[in-house]
Amino acid sequence: MIGSKQSSPTPIPTALNVRTQSRVLEVHFDDGKEFTLPFELLRVYSPSAEVRGHGVGQETLQTGKRDVTLTAL
């Protein structure tokens, strides 16, 4: 189509690797991109009520999450 912008398909995860010793989650996508996410980052930015609260203004600064582990995926 002339003048229309085609949207690219959303990349699909192809592999998830949990590295318990280094405490990171590796995510691989079908477009070749790979990301390494520390468990601490995942916990601090979790959508849980502990982090986000139960409404606007109830967010809580997360500290002491350095030694968090991943128990299930």
Chain-wise SSE layout:
Blueprint: E1 13-19, E2 24-29, E3 34-38, H1 39-44, H2 49-52
Q: Assign an overall shape.
A: flat
Q: How many helical stretches?
A: 2
Average pLDDT score: 80
- Structural class given helices, strands, pairing? alpha+beta
Q: Strands across the major sheet, in which order?
A: 1-2-3
In whole angstroms, how far apart are the ends?
A: 42 Å
Q: Which percent range describes the beta-strand content?
A: 15-25%
Low-confidence stretches: none
- What is the N-to-C order of secondary-structure elements (H for helix, E for strand)? EEEHH
- Computed Rg: 17 Å
Main sheet specs = 3 strands, antiparallel
Task: Write a compact overview of the structure shown.
The protein is built from 2 helices and 3 strands, in the order E-E-E-H-H. The chain has helices spanning 39-44, 49-52; strands spanning 13-19, 24-29, 34-38.
Describe the model:
With 73 residues, the chain is of the alpha+beta class. The protein has a domain of 40 residues. 14% of the residues lie in helices and 25% in strands. The chain contains two helices and three strands, in the order βββαα. A three-stranded antiparallel sheet has the order 1-2-3. The N and C termini lie far apart (42 Å). 1% of the residues are buried. The mean pLDDT is 80.
